[in-house]
Design a protein that fits this description.
mainly alpha, two-stranded antiparallel ribbon, 19 helices, about 50% helix, globular, binds s-citryldethia Coenzyme A, Citrate_synth-like_lrg_a-sub, transferase
């Protein structure tokens, strides 16, 4: 990793120059990536000027170098290791994309078979993990359960906690990818008071999740292949997305040397927020609240009102100022799944399409480049699959686990890695003396 940064530093571009108030000129190299904006390497800024940069939500900050995912927000481009998301969604499958994200190349048939077998054969969790669930209320949000149970995995897998051992990193990575569907399905079963269902290794990854979600001891359950295929595609679309909030959380947690299970639990916690992965659940709640297309103008007005905290859930994105390419694939998949599953006239989908149409013609949304994002359609498909809205973000976390792990692995393998420790602009009191209580 360092070598490519050094190579970039030796680029021919002129350094950027910063003229300080003292008149001093500080110079900083420009680093060029393969695609996307160049960066100004300001690592020496504080040492050479005594000043920090100020970028609270990191809107102009590159926190790392990465080779995993590239996004062009203006063109609506998303590449995983160079492959367009549209091609991966249409031609690949989730476990193959997992291999691609982790290893950097599409697997050969032999690589794929051994990776597939390894993941499928590690889908069970330690039997005692079942006890964690009974400590939660039945009506606990499944994301609360996920944070708790995933964070506790390090208490069971002591043989894959040494982050400096490549083999232990690989074992932990595969365990997390393999066990997330089981843990997620158990969270659902617990919430509805049904017995846990063991994984069936004869089933594919997405199929097995649906089996663990919906099988019952008292009757045969056959996974609908259309649903399984649509879910596999949705998992691909949610697998990784550059340095989003939850991925940055995982990287920051991992930079302290925390074990991968704890880092992924931190990512799950961050993803839960409605501004991030929690938006898919919020979209469904919003559509239900709107209820009828005649009420759409009222909600568009609320979304535009600066004094109203209401946001149009599923719209807008920090990076995409064009259509989120994942939303386009999901929109198409939505139609297919609903038709296949017999929901030909799903009122929520009709309402979503009408909302999308009105919003995209509204000057406010056009000027601010607010387009539907990945969360706008996913919830409608999940609902058609019979998945409750409280589980939507859990599925997002299930899919994103491979992205979090791939980014965490890339950081750990970077010889230049050090603990992340941002600074601040301090605007509090200067030094002052303590006043005893009887004198206040
Ligand atoms: C995900 O980062 C990732 O990659 C995330 C993700 C991933 O795969 O990991 O893509 C997944 O999190 C998708 C986003 C899901 N969230 C939502 O759908 C929630 C609704 N969206 C907004 O909260 C918002 O658009 C964000 C949080 C997604 C983006 O926020 P930004 O980039 O900080 O944008 P902003 O708040 O600065 O908005 C710019 C302007 C503001 O108006 P002004 O202050 O300029 O007048 O647009 C407005 C905002 O008020 N705006 C919206 C809006 N989103 C932004 N107004 C109404 N409805 C919205 N949805």
């Amino acid at each position: 990793m360092t070598s490519s940064v050094n190579a970039m530093t030796q680029g021919n571009k002129d350094d950027s120059k910063l003229i300080m108030p003292t008149g001093e000129i500080a110079q900083f190299p420009i680093l060029d990536g393969t695609l996307g904006p160049s960066v100004i390497d300001i690592r020496s800024l504080y040492g050479s000027t005594g000043s920090f940069t100020y970028d609270p939500a990191f809107t102009s900050t590159a926190s790392c170098e990465s080779k995993i995912t590239f996004i062009d927000g203006d063109k609506g481009v998303l590449l995983h290791r160079g492959y367009p998301i549209e091609q991966l969604a249409e031609q690949s499958n989730f476990l193959e994309v997992c291999y691609l994200l982790l290893e950097g190349e599409l697997p050969t048939q032999e690589n794929y078979k051994s990776f597939y077998d390894n993941i499928i054969q590690h889908s069970m969790v330690h039997e005692q993990i079942r006890n964690f669930y009974s400590g939660f209320r039945r009506d606990a949000h499944p994301m609360a359960t996920m944070v708790g149970v995933v964070g506790a995995l390090s208490a069971f897998y002591h043989d894959s906690l040494d982050i400096h051992d490549p083999r232990q990193r690989e074992i932990a990575s595969h365990r997390l990818i393999a066990k997330m569907p089981t843990i997620a399905a158990m969270a659902y079963k617990y919430s509805v008071g049904q017995p846990f269902v063991y994984p069936d290794n004869a089933l594919g990854y997405a199929e097995n999740f649906l089996h663990m979600m919906f099988s019952l001891p008292c009757e045969k359950y056959k996974v609908n292949p259309v649903t399984a295929s649509a879910l596999d595609k949705i998992l691909i679309l949610h697998a990784d997305h550059e340095q989003n909030a939850s991925t940055s959380t995982v990287r920051l947690a991992g930079s302290s040397g925390a074990n991968p299970f704890a880092c992924i639990a931190a990512g799950i916690a961050c993803l839960w927020g409605p501004a991030h992965g929690g938006a898919n659940e919020a979209v469904l709640n919003m559509l239900r609240e709107i209820g009828h297309k005649d009420r759409i103008p009222e909600y568009i007005k609320k979304a535009k009102d600066k004094n109203d905290p209401f946001r149009l859930m599923g719209f807008g994105h920090r990076v995409y100022k064009n259509y989120d390419p994942r939303a386009q694939v999901l929109r198409k998949a939505c139609h297919e799944v609903l038709n296949e599953l017999g929901h030909k006239n799903e009122p929520l989908l009709d309402l979503a399409k009408e909302l999308e149409k009105i919003a995209l013609e509204d000057p406010y949304f056009v000027e601010k480049k607010l387009y539907p994002n990945v969360d706008f359609y996913s919830g409608i498909i999940f609902q058609a699959m019979g998945i409750p809205s409280s589980m939507f973000t859990v599925l997002f976390a299930l899919a994103r686990t491979v992205g979090w792990i791939a980014q965490w692995k890339e950081m750990i393998e970077d010889p230049q890695m050090k603990i992340g420790r941002p600074r601040q602009l301090y605007t509090g009191y200067g030094p002052r003396d303590f006043v005893p209580l009887n004198k206040r």
